[in-house]
Amino acid sequence: MSNQQPYARRIQNIQSHIVNNSCNNNKKNNNNNNELLYDCVVVGGGITGSSACYQMAKEGLKVLMLEQFQEAHDRGSSHGDGRIIRLSYPEDTYVRLAKMAYPEWSEIERLSNTKLIHITGGLDFGVPNAQPLIDLIDSYKRNNIDYQILTKKEAELNFPQFKFHENDLIVFQKDSGVAYASKSIKTIWSLSKRFGAQILDNKKVSRIKVESENLITILCEDQSVYKTKKIVLACGGWVNQLIHNSQLNITLPLEISQETVFYWEPKLNNTIDYTQFSNPVSIYYGESICFYTLPQIDIRGVKIGYHHGGNVLENMESIKLPYKKENYNKVKEFVGSYMPGLNNDKEYHSVVCHYTNTSDLHFIVDKHPRFSNVIIASPCSGHGFKFGPAIGKLISHLVQNKPSPIGSNDEFLLKRFNINFFPKRTSA
Length: 428
Description:
Shape: globular
Number of helices: 11
Helix content: 25-40%
Number of strands: 22
Protein name: FAD dependent oxidoreductase domain-containing protein
Structural class: alpha+beta
CATH architecture of the largest domain: 3-Layer(bba) Sandwich
GO molecular function: flavin adenine dinucleotide binding; sarcosine oxidase activity
CATH superfamily of the largest domain: FAD/NAD(P)-binding domain
CATH topology of the largest domain: FAD/NAD(P)-binding domain
Family: Belongs to the MSOX/MTOX family.
Distance between the termini: 31 Å
Cofactor: FAD
Pfam family, one: DAO
């Protein structure tokens, strides 16, 4: 399956492998495409799909990625100016994955000569009895991660963007930061093509057919057809629709939510620096609520979101509903209480994105229970972007039947669910 050409030689010959990515040109080349047998086809060009494509192409596999919209589009889960990157997880699996993600991001930056990660440091804070904070401190100790517990005075002296409450538990970890989201997608797409991957946008997959354990046929809405040995379904909130259209006989226990993040400007005459060069990322844990903040990057204002505070949708094509007024007011209250230097009367800007959530909020990275050449790599439940290149490597190993690079990852396997199999339909 793998190209045995030495890595250095493949780098030297990269330019000869670049494939034309124009959708119009694809139509006249469909006959040639039909004759190709790919090692793997990736469906979905967000952070998960593009990272998988990049990692497999870098290892010499013949890879095709199909994206139903345009590069770095804003209709899914991978767009925007910034996302939090952090080691601050209570689960050891995510800590191992994060420790692998940081050097993978550095490698992408090196290969592309593009800055994608900026380290700001990170605050996790909230009510002192918040179980997530207690578990987080235990995880830091268990995994030998440097951290500091700050007093209110220490925290406000170092981070004047915040005003904390007297009894808050405040934990600082120096390695947290921001990943530039849309910029990262564009960069990973470009690198994937440099390593020989073929990427087609505006190419919606309508169904797949598993012919055998070594052959899958892919039919797109424009009637183009592709052949591959293996396929990765990394299409987020659209994954169940594709699985059902393809008669793959399972329904994944997923819930799609429409989330909104808000950007809040500093008040007039405020001299505090809220940019990424001074302001840390943060996560607040209340009794039953979680907010996250990112410093100003490209869009004016501090980005603040209510984690899992959006509307649940039936599917990705559902009519979009207004953000819940009571949740909007909770965001405003949080801004006024903890970041009083910001104007919480009205946000400067807002952005809509989607979470595709499992019931336990862990990822799915696993083979289909019946078809071992179908890999399901979705969803990220609102916290996956930071891990992108590491998840891509996880998928690449899975496609090549290599051991997991992070050891045990049972949290990502389908066996944890009571998967419902439905009868195979007789009609096409």
